[in-house]
Design goal:
The structure is a homodimer. By secondary structure, chain A is α/β, with parallel strands linked by helices. Chain A folds into four domains: 4-17 and 173-315, MoaB/Mog-like domain (Molybdenum Cofactor Biosythetic Enzyme, Chain A, 3-Layer(aba) Sandwich); 21-38 and 140-171, Molybdopterin biosynthesis moea protein, domain 2, CATH 3.90.105; 48-133, Beta Complex (Molybdopterin biosynthesis moeA protein, domain 3); 325-405, Beta-clip, CATH 2.40.340. Chain A has helices at residues 4-13, 154-162, 200-210, 226-236, 255-262, 297-315; strands at 20-24, 37-38, 48-49, 53-56, 66-74, 88-92, 104-107, 111-114, 119-122, 132-133, 144-146, 167-171, 176-180, 185-186, 197-198, 216-218, 241-245, 266-269, 274-275, 281-285, 288-293, 325-330, 334-335, 341-351, 354-359, 376-380, 386-387, 392-397. A six-stranded mixed β-sheet of chain A has the order 7-4-6-5-9-8, with no helix packed on it. A six-stranded mixed β-sheet of chain A has the order 16-13-17-21-20-18, with helices on both faces. In chain A, strands 22-25-24-26-28 form a five-stranded mixed barrel. In chain A, strand 24 (341-351) and strand 25 form a beta hairpin. The first copy, chain A, is elongated.
Chain lengths: 407, 407
């Protein structure tokens, strides 16, 4: 059986990247940019006052207090009309153009307006050049401000707006189809009869996928018969990513693996040395990346994060693909099951700046409720039998930490 | 001037929580649940086989190898028809109902089918009770599975689906209006003329807000004249949250503070001992929470994260409100500016499981491009003059860490 690490590498190496598409700035969050973005302007576009105050010549205020004549008031968005010469100053607002001749802006708090604003008394010295952001000091016209491959976050949206990039290319995100299989599954609006359970995997997988892509469709639930599964998989093969859950184990009615092979998909692996999540299959047919995940809800959840998440990130051409792994202090002794690497649902919190982690209680990979107490996966390598309280362990973070994990 | 900590407390203590609204499971991600969710079923709903294998009586296989008669095959979703007595076994699929009389399931890998499936040879012993998930062991019918106030993540979506919660109450998310002020601002599709810049703050603020709420509207850009600002603010006062940027400093044309006071809003603070972001105002009028943030793009960005983010989280009744603060090792010496607490854009990465942080290069709070290199804020308390390379520092994380910060 291949290791988790090998399986992730196989997934990443065999995932196709997607083409660019044109998008508007309002739709761009969470994509990676597919072209270098070039500024059409200098930033600042002019010598810009960084403060409300007075534009003046630094030499004039070497001995304070001293008084200067105020020749005009320059507000943001307006061009200055007067030149600053020795003995003169212009009142200036934050964001306004520094007038020619001035080399310094003193902040209004260090001045006193006198003679009804006709003159200003300077109360403090200020270094030459202070409070002026020079034209082009942040960005020069023609400069690349965002590189191909950069992820669009709110900061990047600000930059895109400032250079007037209303439409630009990003790498397309995949469309995702989800099929839950199993004769025992009923829709969520049905009260399960004897032997039945509701299709929770379809919904949780869709929610996981929707955290990174928009176009996610839960296809019909596929009963455990070969013909039905075939026809639904045919539909799923129109997607960039097809995720199945269930039907990949060793049962007589686990048709998914069989059906996929008959459809001549290329199977890269169908078992991983992983707990929970051993019967995980990765295959491809044409442009469709197929993940057949185990049907136990915790295993479905974990294998999405380990294998499907990095594949989608690669398709969208992000630089970072997998979820981050950090070191934390284990809070309790832990007896491992060995043989396979465990990715054990756990809860991580911050105590005095240090991360502490504890496995959540669970009854095994069918225990969906247990993972509502989890925010990470404790990684237990397959050769490890026991881990001790207070030792350092590796933890894969699943979502952004929130501040109540900060106590 | 009040401290950042005091200001955040004032914001949180004066933020009104919002009422519940009914929502469907497909819309629920990112909300907090407004009612206890109760299971209408046991989980598992029956004694459930956790493996593909044979259901049998443990006593029968104390001496292996031994052969048992196979009385039926039970697939998932079907009710067993035969009782298991001494010497008998039923072939059983993962997720199927364990037949009466059986107390154990042995996995198929530890057996050999003989006599054309009429009998099975058991090759290994198995502990009594093994591979059976007992009815109700995870959840009992009538049990609360999700508590009021819990955040909906993919795990919770799975639980909601499994108990048939198609529609349920969550705490409403606020609608947010954004107004950028300044005579120098032009729309992003316009090439700025002399003294002008594009309205990037409106876009970056909207992107920040859209990370946590859906209903975000960029209202018109408000020129720096009192009447115009007044009429646009009137529009903004129909929102739960109104965010203004610019116009709150000490300039003659900084009308925002003046206008708000004339409108008889209740102002809680209008300056915070913070760099960047001193001229930050928090006020309320009726149900509208008003944040007038400074106009410098980096200051706008930082003050949203520090003050607006926790207010929105409180309105939505999340348990955790602020962004998490962790300890990291500083990579370089850092000379602080003192007087005000700095929240300095910085880049955090993981080296051998330890977090290391470095301030990003910047030219001050107008340098929008600098924060595209940042993923966190380095916190420099106001009494600190200098921090040394390799010392521990506090860092506020801004977004989920990604794996390339893991090198």
């Amino acid at each position: 059986m291949i290791s988790v690490k090998e399986a992730v590498e196989i997934v990443i190496n065999n995932t196709d990247v997607l083409d660019p598409q044109l998008i508007t700035i309002n739709e761009a969050m969470g994509f990676s940019i597919a072209e270098d973005i070039i500024s059409d302007i200098d930033m600042p576009p002019f010598n810009r006052s960084a403060m409300d105050g007075y534009a003046l010549i630094a030499e004039d205020i070497e001995n304070v207090p001293c008084d200067l004549e105020v020749v005009e008031t320059i507000s943001a968005g307006c061009a200055p009309e007067k030149l600053i010469r020795k003995g003169l100053a212009s009142k200036i607002m934050t964001g306004a153009i520094v007038p020619e001749g001035a080399d310094t802006v003193i902040m209004v708090e260090d001045t006193e307006s006198i003679d009804n604003g006709a003159r200003v008394r300077i109360l403090k010295q200020t270094k030459k050049g202070k409070n002026i952001a020079l034209k082009g000091e942040d960005v020069e016209s023609g400069q690349v401000v965002l590189k191909k491959g950069q992820e669009v976050r709110p900061q990047e949206i600000g930059v895109l707006a400032s250079v007037g990039a209303e439409r630009f290319k990003v790498f397309r995100s995949p469309n995702v189809g989800i099929i839950a299989t199993g004769d025992e599954l009923v829709e969520i609006n049905v009260k399960p009869g004897a032997g039945q359970i509701r299709n929770s995997n379809g919904y949780s997988l869709a929610a996981q996928a929707r955290q990174i892509v928009n176009d996610v469709e839960i296809l019909e639930v596929a009963a455990d018969n070969q013909e039905k599964i075939c026809s639904i998989i045919e539909l799923g093969l129109k997607k960039d990513v097809l995720i199945l859950s269930g039907g990949v184990s060793m049962g007589d009615y686990d048709f998914v693996g069989k059906v996929l092979k008959e459809m001549e998909v290329e199977v890269f692996f169908e078992k991983v040395s992983l707990r929970p999540g051993k019967p995980t299959l990765f295959a491809k047919k044409g442009r469709t990346h197929i993940f057949a995940l185990p049907g136990n809800p915790v295993a479905t959840f974990v294998t999405f994060e380990l294998f499907v998440y990095p594949a989608i990130r690669k398709m969208m051409r992000f630089a970072s693909l997998t979820k981050p792994v950090i070191t934390a202090v284990l809070e309790t002794d832990y007896i491992a099951k060995k043989k396979r690497t465990e990715y054990r649902p756990a809860y991580i919190k911050l105590c005095d700046g240090k991360f502490r982690v504890k496995p959540v209680n669970w009854h095994g990979s069918g225990d969906l409720l247990s993972i509502t107490n989890a925010n990470c996966l404790l990684i237990v390598p397959e050769e490890i039998q026991k881990m001790d309280a207070n030792q350092d362990v590796n933890v894969m973070l699943l979502s952004a930490l929130s501040a109540n994990e900060n106590i």
